[in-house]
Write a structure and sequence with these properties.
Order of helices and strands: HEEEEEEEEEEEE
Helix content: 10-25%
Structural class: mainly beta
Number of strands: 12
Shape: globular
Distance between the termini: 66 Å
Number of helices: 1
Largest sheet: 6 strands, antiparallel
Length: 167
């Protein structure tokens, strides 16, 4: 009986350890919408831009041709290689920056005001994963989850069309 219990505990431990930390993203506050969540608050983003350098920007506001908007909630991800493939990009590895801002003002692609929820000064770990991208149809599906240095999570997803950002 003791050996059966040890075997069962061993199987449970192996199953637990084999699960990847980026298998899924909590989506409770979003209720199936595109966007991100922080501290049980959902920030719905209805537009995604992929720039010429393959930076991905999720936004609740349409950005002007020069990359400007006011009162914007957005998340931005940049890879170290300036490429965008179907794969995971992790903090400290292939992800050069991740930024999440609420009520921000963007001028020519630069943030001038807003509440920074996630940035280089408070990100501890996490990933941004492109699940699929179709450059002909301009469709993208992605998920992300980051842990801040205070232990809080910033997580989100997007599935739909994207715009080409020239900024």
């Amino acid at each position: 009986m003791k050996s059966q219990l040890q075997f069962l505990l061993g199987i449970c431990l192996i199953t637990f350890l084999s699960c990847s930390t980026d298998d899924s993203v909590p989506n409770n506050a979003l209720a199936g919408e595109n966007g991100f969540q922080f501290n049980s608050t959902a920030y719905i983003t209805n537009t995604v831009y992929v720039t010429v350098d393959n930076e991905v920007i999720l936004s609740n506001q349409f950005l002007t041709d020069d990359g400007s908007a006011e009162n914007a909630d957005f998340a931005s991800f940049t890879t170290t290689t300036n490429t965008l493939d179907t794969k995971s990009y992790h903090v400290g590895e292939e992800l050069s920056s991740c930024l999440t801002v609420t009520e921000g003002k963007i001028q020519q692609g630069n943030i001038t005001t807003g509440q920074i929820i996630l940035g280089e000064n408070n990100v501890a770990s996490g990933f941004f994963r492109v699940l699929s991208i179709n450059r002909v149809r301009k469709e993208i599906s992605l998920i992300f989850e980051f842990q801040r240095t205070d232990g809080e999570l910033v997580a989100g997803s997007y599935n739909g069309n994207y715009e080409i950002g020239m900024f």
